[in-house]
């Protein structure tokens, strides 16, 4: 159930029975042969699947994140870290002000991690708010699937190649991981290093593997939506 499909009166009625909200964060950035909105499409698909099972409301996603290192790839649009942090805080405070007290952030992009750290400060000022944050690609559940099938996860490789993120033909051969000269690079250097944008490895896994991967992440989301524990 998405906010975009409701009016304000529907949301008010929802809040009479449930105070949970799913907030999807991601990025608009290059993903080699995959959609530029891969980092939104994956967590949003997880949010929709979880919502279908639980009825938890899904907020409209924040389609832009922190991706300055990919700005030389056309289509990449990046926010400054300070802008992104402020936007996430404003969204959380807006939701809290209306009565949402349990918010799960489903994040699809590693560059957005500064906002996670900042939310600790926000939570201190809103002690009745329960927040959680989920980076699906770093979870033990998804790691276990990769290990089981002998696959190495990385940016814009098989890990993110779901049927709903593939927008072009994928190369058949594996990509040799590029040699990265340093941890911090300007956008021009990053494009020279990464070429098509993939960080290397297989471009695609079987549909069975991707289904298993998605379900593993979905189980994590469903568990997190219970908001068990103290606080």
Distance between the termini: 27 Å
Please state how the strands of the largest beta sheet are arranged side by side.
Answer: 2-1-3-4
Question: What is the alpha-carbon Rg in Å?
Answer: 18 Å
Largest beta-sheet characterization: 4 strands, parallel
Helix content: 25-40%
Q: Care to count the β-strands?
A: 4
Poorly predicted runs: none
Sheet-strand content, in percent, reads 5-15%
Instruction: List the total number of helices.
Output: 7
Determine the mean pLDDT: 96
SSE pattern: HEHEHEHEHHH
Structural class category: alpha/beta
- Shape descriptor reads globular
Structure overview:
39% of the residues lie in helices and 9% in strands. It has 7 helices and 4 strands; from the N terminus they run αβαβαβαβααα. It has helices spanning 8-15, 38-54, 81-98, 113-125, 140-148, 187-194, 207-224, and strands at 20-25, 57-58, 102-107, 130-135. Strand 1, helix 2 (38-54) and strand 2 (57-58) form a beta-alpha-beta unit. Helix 3 (81-98) packs parallel to helix 4 (113-125) and helix 5 packs antiparallel against helix 7. The longest helix has 18 residues, at 81-98. The protein is globular, with a radius of gyration of 18 Å. The model has no long low-confidence stretch (mean pLDDT 96).
């Amino acid at each position: 159930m998405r906010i975009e499909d409701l009016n304000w009166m529907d949301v008010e009625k929802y809040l009479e029975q449930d105070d949970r909200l799913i907030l999807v964060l991601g990025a608009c950035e290059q993903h080699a042969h995959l959609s530029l909105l891969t980092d939104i499409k994956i967590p949003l698909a997880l949010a929709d699947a979880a919502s279908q099972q639980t009825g938890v409301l899904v907020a409209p996603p924040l389609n832009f994140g922190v991706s300055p290192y990919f700005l030389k790839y056309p289509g990449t649009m990046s926010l400054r870290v300070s802008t992104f942090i402020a936007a996430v805080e404003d969204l959380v405070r807006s939701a809290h002000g209306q009565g949402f007290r349990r918010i799960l952030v489903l994040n699809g992009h590693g560059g957005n991690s500064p906002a996670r750290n900042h939310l600790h400060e926000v939570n201190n000022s809103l002690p009745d708010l329960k927040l959680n944050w989920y980076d699906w690609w770093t979870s033990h559940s998804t790691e276990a699937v990769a290990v089981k099938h002998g696959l190495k996860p990385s940016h814009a490789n098989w890990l993110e190649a779901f049927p709903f993120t593939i927008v072009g033909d994928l190369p058949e051969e594996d990509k040799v991981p590029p040699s990265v000269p340093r941890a911090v690079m300007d956008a021009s250097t990053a494009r020279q290093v990464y070429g098509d944008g993939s960080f290397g490895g297989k471009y695609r896994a079987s549909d069975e593997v991707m289904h298993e991967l998605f379900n593993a992440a979905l189980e994590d989301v469903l568990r997190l939506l219970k908001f068990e524990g103290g606080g």
